Sequence to fold (369 residues):
Amino acid sequence: MKEKLTFLPKLALILFCLISLTYIAILGHTLLAPLLFSFLMAILLLPVSNFLEQRFKFKRSFSTIVSVVLMIGVISGVIYFFGNQLSDLWADWPLLKAKANVSYHELQHWISETFHVNTQKQLAYLNDSTEKALATSAAIVATTLATLSSTLLFLAFTLLFTFFILNYRRILFTFLTSVFKEEHKEKVTEIVTQIQYIIKRYIIGLFLQMFIVSVMMIAILSILGIKYAILLGLVAGIFNVIPYLGIFFALLVSCLITFATAGAGKVLLVLVVYIVVHAIDGNILMPLVVGSKVKINALFAFLGIVVGEMIWGISGMFLCIPYLAILKIIFDRVDHLNPWGLLMGEEPKPEKKKRVYQITKKIKLEERD
Fold:
């Protein structure tokens, strides 16, 4: 009879595995990040590929190519639209620079009056900071170029991996069900099916949530007369995908641009708009369009975002939540890992009646499970 490991050797083995996986993730960032992102895109495009194969009798490889091309078209459209908004901002750069200069002098005067720090000391501090920044300008340019090249490489790898995962999905599924013992085959199939269903619904819900938040922000900011309302609305919608931290980054960018173009009064309006939209998003949109079938508690979500950023940067922040959801699905369905699934989830709540929002006589929205 096999002896079970005692607590200390078991803990040491777990820590060794975690450290090894983290080290591999850091070393393999260039390859693993697009691979994991491609897996999510492949799940999203799977219904499209299946539809083309069943309805139009396309071959597997051709339906995969068409699906990937459609994805490229959608991404290119979003980038083109976003680029147009940035070009408008760039065209107004001299005006923004002049406005920022006026605001800078007003801020100098306020600091001088409030904290009794004269202008000469402020300028000396800024000049010292500027000299340090110029000294590292070459490093900044090199970092910018490296970031651009790594982004292009990331997109190229993502497209290739998405094609291969879609094209060889049956082989991958057969491998997953064959690598485990026969008595576990049914449970593995169930886990794979659940991951496919929940992650697909999760991603579609996120895209829908991103679209609704963007439209709401654009509409409200346009009504308030905020310049670059479309650009700021897109920033709010895109970064809203990152829980907790994304909305603060979008708010910071929006407040800076609004302050440079319209002054401090409009900044307060933008702040109020963000608070209202974020409240609507968290209490109405999130339960309706994303659902809570796999709910990660705020502690693990925040830890996942921080660790993801430390390991893989922005891509790690985007990937952490769906892959935490995948881990929770696995933990909930494997007996020995059930406690980890409970730890990652939220405290059970008593059953309550689902909220239903009547849009029209024929259209209504019901809160998801």
Residues 185-223 form the longest helix (39 residues).
